[in-house]
Amino acid sequence: MPKFKDKSKKTSKSKRISDNDESDILKSLKNSAILGGIFLTFSLFFNTEIINYFMNRGIYWDILDVSIKVSLILLSFLFMMISLGNYKELTGKPVGLKEILLLFGLSLVQTMKNLYVFIFTLIGLGLLLIYLYLIQESKI
Amino acid sequence: MKKHKVFILTITYIVFLFIITSFLIINANAAVEDIEPDFGFAPEIDGDIEGSKKEWENATKEEIQLISKTSTNPDDKGIFTDIWVMQNQSDLYISIQFELENHAANEFIAIIISEDETESNSSFYDAKIVQWYNLGGPSEEHKYRDFYLINGVFFRDSDDNGDGAADLHGNKMIYEFRIPVNGSEEDDRDVDLEFGDSYAFKIVYGENDNYNDILNEKTSSVLIDIEYPKQEEMPLWKKVVFILAIIAFGAIGGLYGLYIYKVLVIKQKIGRIKE
User: Is B254 on the interface with A (CB under 8 A)?
Assistant: First the structure.
């Protein structure tokens, strides 16, 4: 029996996620992926203008239309980001810049048919990223 | 001698015809303009035609004269009025604008709609009115009201369908009306303005709120064609954007599908990592 405990083994043990945490993370991963998918589906319907009920009916309807489109994109981004974060946590890696940029880009692509949606989504995504960065920092 | 008599009789007959027809034209109140409105975005009905917002930029703009039928003053040329008309799929928009040195305290503009393009009294049976109360006074206000007419007598409609507003800008009064078309909002006492048909609209100016005995009434009529929504061919850039959108949204859907697949097999992956 060795006299001294293996240091590296101890470190890996402390970082290992418990089975309970793992199932919680998996649950959160699936739920957020489903929610992200739902918002993404609605976003595709609105942003491809398949659903155009609120369009060109007056200024207030236009504001409502843009608000719905921007909200759906931001919500799908947020939930997909949470889901991706959980996924990465389970696989033991941090969310990389590549993945963030990919999600960012895919969210912006959805705004291609409306300039106002693009501008407000860009602002919203920026704020969301700052928020996610800050809460990550505060957890550390 | 006989030739002279025939000549004098002919001249008298022509002059008589001329006078009679002039008299008929004045009293017929026939439509002076046939307006084919263009399609545009719905303006805000607030009595303000803000140029910066270009709310009425697509409107068809004409000038008419609101003329008194009873005035005996030959110098009374009526009120020179701008009429702007625009429509979209659900509503017809009309703006009436004119300048007066002194506006009456209880001034109003009524838009009386005929059931078709005929302009007999009985054919006009729907009226949309914006009425001022105490204009220029401390408690000035205006109200939009919907009336129906039976044999020229005004009755209040139970539902105020449509919308109207007015505002005074210096000496210029601006009225704005929204009138539903194609059954978007109406009852049995409203004229059903259908796409593809023409309707006579009588514009009435008055200075009191008793519409069955209007003070200083001045009117004019226009014909407005309710146009079908135009089926415009999609321009090339829109087609390109449409194709790009299909590709982009297809790619997003595909990536999401791939991600869901990865989520479904993650347990196996975790197992491998643990080993």
Answer: no
